[in-house]
Description:
Shape: elongated
Helix content: 55-70%
Largest sheet: none
Order of helices and strands: HHHHHHH
Structural class: mainly alpha
Oligomer: single chain
Radius of gyration: 19 Å
Amino acid sequence: MDFDVLKAFSKILEILSMEILTLSEDELQNIAEGKARIKIKILEDKESKEENSVNYEELIEELNSIRNRETGMHIVNSKLKTKDDVVGLAKFIDIPVKKSENIKFIKEKIIEATIGYRLRSASIQDIEELNNR
Length: 133
């Protein structure tokens, strides 16, 4: 194989793995058990996914620096334009997502996993400090 074919093959596997990350646990299990199949359909994309893709690592770093849920939700709303983007981020940080869940609920789960837990932890530590005095 020449270098261009290897690069294309690598890119295709990367795209395929990102799409697989959007599948629910039930879908993955059905595929693994042979109850379902994966079908690949080649579509012409008018907008390059690469141009619109979200850098999940940078977004998580940004959310980790936020100190309130409202600001975090504003950032999530501005950066994640589609349900696929939201589900992709949720899967990236290991939040289970069901296909039936709406986008608002998934965003709330993301905020709780990135900001909410820190706020709860801080308030618990404050309470413990008061009790130890």
